[in-house]
Amino acid sequence: MMARLLGGTGTVRGRKTREILLLLAFLILIWGITTVLSPRFLSVKNITDILIQAAPLGFVVIGQMIVIVVRGLDLSVASIMATAAVLSIGVFDNTATAFVAALLLGALVGGVNGYLVSYRRVTPFLATLATMIVLQGIRFAYTKGAPSGSLPDTFRYLATGDVGGVPVILIVLIGVACVAHWMLERSVPGRQLLLYGDNPEAAHMSGLPAKRIVISAYVISGVLAAIAGLFLVGYVGIVDNWTGQGYELDSIAAAVIGGASLRGGKGSVIGALLAALILVSLFNIVVILGLSIEFQMVVKGALILLAAAVYIRRTRD
Amino acid sequence: MSDLARAVRFQNVHLAIVGLIAAVFIVGVFSSDRFVTVLNIANVQDQLVALALVALAQTVVILSGGIDLSFAGLLGLLSVLFATFAGSDPATFSAAYICILALGTAIGALTGGIVAFSGIHPLIVTLATSTIMAGAALLHTKQPSGSVPLFFEDIVYARFFGFLPWGTLFVIAAYVIVGFVLWRTRFGIRVYAIGDDERAATISGVPVRLTKVLIYALSGFIVALAAIYLVGRFGVGDPRAGIGFDLRSITPVIVGGTLLAGGRGGVLGTFLAVILLALLANVLNFLNVSNFYLWIVEGVIIVVAVSLFVVRARS
Fold this sequence. Notes:
The structure holds two protein chains of two kinds.
Chain A: H1 2-5, H2 12-37, H3 44-69, H4 77-91, H5 95-118, H6 124-143, H7 153-160, E1 162-163, E2 166-167, H8 168-186, H9 188-198, H10 200-205, H11 210-236, H12 247-257, H13 269-288, H14 293-316
Antiparallel strand pairs in A: 1-2
Chain B: H1 3-31, H2 38-63, H3 71-85, H4 90-118, H5 122-140, H6 150-157, E1 159-160, E2 164-165, H7 166-184, H8 186-196, H9 198-203, H10 208-234, H11 245-248, H12 250-255, H13 267-286, H14 291-314
Antiparallel strand pairs in B: 1-2
Helix pairs in contact in B: 1-13, 2-7, 2-8, 2-10, 2-13, 3-4, 3-5, 3-10, 4-5, 4-10, 7-8, 8-10
């Protein structure tokens, strides 16, 4: 039983389980240290706050991870977050319409990314860099550089409200995560994503719709980024042109720490979410220690390097 | 494909960029009579010096199949350190100058070492080191601070015949030297070999790890020069001086015909692309088009350029 729990040896599932247990142990370690430093840390309210803070990154990292699985990279997620929020809330008064418009925008941008990568064979890095810059231009041209408009109450509620004590944002995130996990591990399209990422040539020869697979990965990432953008502006309470700045890099880091390989074919929803939580918890430690915010950046950079190094060592075994 | 054919094809890319530069220039001439003035021409050059230097550094790294996203943090850190220690007399200035160049080179070598020996993707490594250095720069000072001696600002703002800043001459010299190193030295050949096919290079006896350390060290050295220039231009060291330079440094490299996968391209394309982008920004300014639209144009240029090169490479 214990051997099975620790994942046996050699099997893919076993390695994954071990990776997730390692991340979990790391998270508990961080929370343990934080509790020692500041006993007030370990309260339901505080943990819930951290979960809510980590939630927008959670949406983005799931999408980012799926893109990384198909050997891609999505640098446009932060730009999608801001543009979806700014444009949809700026143009539409009706909350539902704004929500749908934001999702459509995310899907559209993801589609463009996927088209460029699959049909035009543009390197993912450059394709998404280009859409990132273009979106930034559109957003600033629309707002003329100033942060725009007021935030409808519904968005504020979605991001900060709760249903029976459980925050809405967490319910949505858990729902999305379950669907993504099931899709990646159990459904045919999900297995196709993994197979394609593992070996595009083989996938192509087995008659898989390679281009459609790549495009759908970017569309998922775009839609999730749009959702994250709406939740983030709801949480912060201000629609800002730079909403989500830094999320592209944080999401890549979290996906990689969570066990995704930049060489494709490998990724885990649970791992990615745990890694996102670890990043946010680490920021929290820095704040509790009373260190300046800038210190977060040093810690984050060092952690990313460390995690990547540990991870590389493990896969070489 | 023979070397000759390859060389000619790349000259086509260069020709195309020169054509675009000419087109943008003509639009500029018609857009405003202040466009072809000594002052404006000097302005365009002032704008492009720092970008030209970081793009040169990025070209070498990309040619080897790597990527360096640490410029934002590195520029910020080196800027504040230089402005802090430059002082006001030539002696402290020279000492700070040499120390900053050495520090930039050392940080680059360290980055290269991590990339070469850990096997972690350079994207992750340089993002991480950039974050660390940006944090360190902000810990050192939150506000732009420090100063440089007046004589250094005088040099940066001096212009030959009214329109030719030292910066431009400096950039040209840097491109010529790096171009020579890439085309005519063993190191240069190794850079291309690693970018073309790392495994083949290893098998052929290329010291891949050492070369990678040297590549990132060279990149760090050039970025240190850019940091010193920026401090001279603005008169202070700004911890945020480098923001945006990481991604902006890639655009000219790609537009100039260097493949992101490595092994193909060169510094001439980057140089021309830097001129094109700086001129484009300037002309759009005269046309009263806001900088926000420049972003849209830049994104479209990347996609078009890359799509074209991919189609060419396949045919």
